[in-house]
Amino acid sequence: MKLEIKDLCFAYGTHEIVQNVSFEAEEGQILAVLGINGVGKSTMLRCINRINRPRSGKITVGGKDVARMDGATLAKHIGYVSQNCEFSESTVFDAVLLGRKPFIQWDVTGHDLEIVQEVLGLLSLEGYAMRSVNELSGGERQKVAIARALAQQTPVLLFDEPTSNLDLKNQLEVLQTIRTIVREKGLTAVVTIHDLNLALRFADRFLIMKEGRVYADGGAEAVNTAAIREVYGVRAAVMECSGRRVVVPE
Ligand SMILES: Nc1ncnc2c1ncn2[C@@H]1O[C@H](COP(=O)(O)OP(=O)(O)OP(=O)(O)O)[C@@H](O)[C@H]1O
């Protein structure tokens, strides 16, 4: 389902953070949200998920107004992985099973258990199923949070820096897993990410934010020398390397 954001505005008190942000995220695609620290990327994701109440603007999923959804309906449409993955004490299996909560009526079904088993496998977490989440490393916990969102099986997924605690191999594997699921199941993913090269490698479209507004919205060509200079204040070369667009800061 398509995610559409129209004229979104949000402020903490009088501090305007998100200002007239509009964009669309398409089915089967990953949209990377880029921009400097504090520009409002996480705040915007939390508006989409209704953790933050927007001052104005409209957010729809598949044409349905997110503001009018009840909690259970919202949880069936939008999955969210926050930057700080905190869990209450449980096993990894149960933490991932929590993703099924919006669908569980009386009791957990065999179908729920199968889904949990499947996502644990996708993220190579099978061996961790009976471990306590609070005994895991930051990166392992981040993978559990991603697994829980995938178990929720929502058409829209929001990931706030999903690879920030992961080593290089896990960064590549986790983003590849997300991309495969997004493409195969026709999901819509919005991912905030600082690593421009990872973004260029895995995302289909790029929303660059500056001072709370949309600076650019487009394909890989949006990530160019001028944008990097104007948004990050960094001189960088953007070149092709092994058929990929890469950013090399000077
Ligand atoms: N609960 C809050 N109350 C007041 N101000 C906040 C709150 N949370 C965030 N802010 C401020 O809002 C601005 C945007 O923060 P946000 O976390 O959305 O930025 P970001 O682009 O995600 O940054 P980063 O890349 O560092 O994660 C920052 O100036 C931040 O200090």
TrEMBL record:
Q: Which organism is it from?
A: Anaerofilum hominis
Q: Which SUPFAM superfamilies match?
A: P-loop containing nucleoside triphosphate hydrolases
The residue ranges of the ABC transporter domain are: 3-236
What molecular function terms (GO) are annotated for this protein? ATP binding; ATP hydrolysis activity
What is the designated name of this protein? Answer: ABC transporter ATP-binding protein
The lineage's top-level taxon is: Bacteria
Please give the PANTHER family that the UniProt record associates with this protein.
Answer: ABC TRANSPORTER ATP-BINDING PROTEIN, HEMIN IMPORT ATP-BINDING PROTEIN HMUV
Mind telling me which Gene3D superfamilies this protein's record contains? P-loop containing nucleotide triphosphate hydrolases (3.40.50.300)
Q: List the Pfam families.
A: ABC_tran
Annotated keywords: ATP-binding, Nucleotide-binding, Transport
